[in-house]
Description:
The complex is a heterotrimer. Chain A is built from 12 helices and 13 strands. Chain A is α/β, with parallel strands linked by helices. In chain A, strands 6, 7, 8, 9, 10, 11 and 13 form a 7-stranded mixed sheet that branches. Chain A has a 6-stranded parallel sheet with strand order 2-1-3-4-5-12, with helices on both faces. In chain A, 59% of the residues are buried. Chain B has a domain at 9-95 and 169-248: 3-Layer(aba) Sandwich (Rossmann fold). Classes of the chains: A alpha/beta, B alpha/beta, C mainly alpha.
Amino acid sequence: MNxxxxxxxxxxxxASTLAASVFTFxxxxxxxxxxxxxxxxxxxxxxxxxxxxxxxxxxGAEAEASKFxxxxxxxxxxxxYSSATQIPIVRTLLATKPNALVLxxxxxxxxxxxxxxxxxxKIPVFNVDSGDANQGNITSWVTGNNSQxxxxxxxxxxxxxxxxxxxxxxxxxVVAIGVSSITTxxxxxxxxxxxxxxxxxxxxxxxxxxxxxxxxPAVATSGFKQDLAANKxxxxxxxxxxxxxxxxxxxxxxxxxxxxxxxxxxxxYSTTIKSMKAGKISAIISQQPAxxxxxxxxxxxxxxxxxxxxxxxxxxxxxxxxxxxCAKLCSTYVYKTA
Amino acid sequence: MxxxxxxxxxxxxxxxxxxxxxxxxxxxxxxxxGEVIGLVGDNGAGKSSLIKTISGVHNADSGxxxxxxxxxxxxxxxxxxxxxxxxxxxxxxxxxxxxxxSNIFLGRELTRNGPLGKFGFLDQKSMERQALExxxxxxxxxxxxxxxxxxxxxxxxQAVAIGRAAMWxxxxxxxxxxxxxxxxxxxxxxxKVIRAARDQGLCVLFISHTLPHVLEVTDRIxxxxxxxxxxxxxxxxxxxxxxxxxxxxxxx
Amino acid sequence: xxxxETPVAPSDDAPPLSQLRRLAAFATSQQxxxxxxxxxxxxxxxxxxxxxxxxxxxxxxxxxFSTAILIAVAEMYVITSGGIDLSVGSTIAFSxxxxxxxxxxxxxxxxxxxxxxxxxxxxxxxxxxxVGLINALLITKARLVPFVAxxxxxxxxxxxxxxxxxxxxxxxxxxxxxxxxxxxWVFTWLSVIVLVITAISGIVLHFTRYGRYNFAIGSNPFxxxxxxxxxxxxxxxxxxxxxxxxxxxxxxxxxxxxGGAPQNGIGLELEAIAAVVIGGVSLTGGVxxxxxxxxxxxxxxxxxxxxxxINVATTWNEVVVAAFIALAAVLQSLGSGARKRT
Lengths: 338, 252, 342
């Protein structure tokens, strides 16, 4: 939507990255010449860099990179999760000739031509979080088990709304769904896992068309309020943190209509955990972004040095946080942004 | 014109230079209420510099300017407007998307009586009515003053613009090429309005390249060449040929 | 003296009266057509799901209308004055973030809910005024064209919102959301305030000297200047006004998202411009009715909300909105074409 302006902001960011990378690259060659231990530069491109999920991932990746002495170029459009803004960043970083690229593609197909260019320049490409539809060019993909997370969300939501007692084939329970983007592999996998589980186990749940929030909580709020006004909604599945914030907001402002609506959703932001503790959210599905970042760097290091093993597809389980286990788990899994 | 009358506008030895270029040299003339004066000359003769001096866009380097017998020094065009001089430039004209009434009162809007007026609330009805009346005084009848100017023909627009100047000018209106880009018939309408303004007792300075129009509507013609007044005579003393000759300097 | 016989009215190059009447009727009917279409669309939604004409959904529509109308009003003022303001969307983000910080600070210092909301609102309006002032200076002093000047502040606002918020929502405050939902019948107090501001803006635009100057400058700035209007001062004031309205809109979004989120309002300048276009306002300035943007925002709101309401995938939203913009633009060009032919 605002690609014009973001391109400006991002232009500046990329320019500085470029300068920095050129310097580190030159520095890298020098150290090779002196036959000291080789220094690597790794380009790491995410979706919306200011999303707490990616901030948390950045912390994990940076810690691991500094352990190995790897220089990390962590990039991403500050706030827009879109291939239109991601592609120029990835293209610019190619010119800096990094030793490897770690990419969280914002679209399952749009990044493929660029990935092929990296491969043709003998730069290995890794996926983290979301993945490319064509994994042939990808050395390794570290991701949360989004399909499993979607299934877990369906189970948690069915339990919260009291499926066995309240939902019948005559009077189905209506569930609203909010996603950030329908072309991202993670959102798609969660939605698929959720839908499959509902179909298999909960035939008396009717799922509405997903609200697309484009990562803006207020847009999700407005959409959920439509669903609430149009239907007798029993539950909401919010597929990521912005949708979860939006769902909590919609219920808060819906008054009595929102009273008995159960919410299950993704991403353990500090704000969403606060809402769960306040009883507004029944369960939070948490990913492990810091661990994803760490494991991605491990895979890169293994590829570049030959030390350690590379797993083609590494899936990390999604964790279900509930008010019952929160005291034990929440502090571990909350996305640490600073 | 009876010469013992006080001139409404008088210029004495006006000089104006732009850097090393002398635009006006010792320009002097007198203008009286109730006459149309043609101001003609080739491009660069100094017509524009002269009307800018009179209307207060800029000041003369030396010389004196009198309006209604009082010597004046303009700081801005507002001063000349306040002294009763209205200028209609080629590019200014009217706001096409506003109604005729709104244009007539543009910058001088009537506000309502009472507290609403203090907040700038407009008295549109009075403006539309008075605009109609004032335009009729200079011979313009517009059946619907609620029409926007963009819905008028070119001639009608120019007539309304002159009517506007005539309505607000106490003494002098300056018209810069008012018949430019108009067809023959539309020009005639404009000339009629100019005569009507004169008959109201205004002094009209009519600047134009279209010599037949100048000869038709003016009482007196001032010819300028290279920044100087070269001839100032009653219109009856000119023919198209002699006027053209005076402008170009080929038969003097 | 005697009046010269009707010298201007009956000339053959002037449009005859009956044709003009028809034209006038057509011009007003563009809005009439859009209004009928709007009603038809609403009836269609209600036919799909009879809860659409219920107080609950009307309440939703009014809230969503209220979150979109103020920047449309801002855009209306700027566009009719002959300019454009691309910075209104990012000002929502920027002012919301700064306002949220102000409120957070005051609440931490036990200022009380009402006091901090009041100061937060003033802070939002102040940030908007500042952005507007920068626009005004870039346009009237640095002589940038409005498109470029406000493109600068668009990027600046988005950037500063991210810098100050560090990417996350500032001042998460569910209490504000709860308050924002209180009201009577289908109105929230917040929407009542917004509607009052909107009504005042419309009255000022069409019935006062300030509004008259706005249209005059948009129609012909040279004529306005020649008429003694201080064009630069007015243009500057319009951008400041636009900024203040966008800043207040930022406060509305603060309530909508329980905090100042830097993503708020991104791209909304285009929605505002779309509403203005749908409402029949000329992008070249000087022409437009306030009722037009009310209609424009109402149509966008109903379409956005209604499609979700009847459970159509939201991906269709933009397509339907595009159809409305096309319809309005065609109506407008038919109207001006008819005017040219006479």
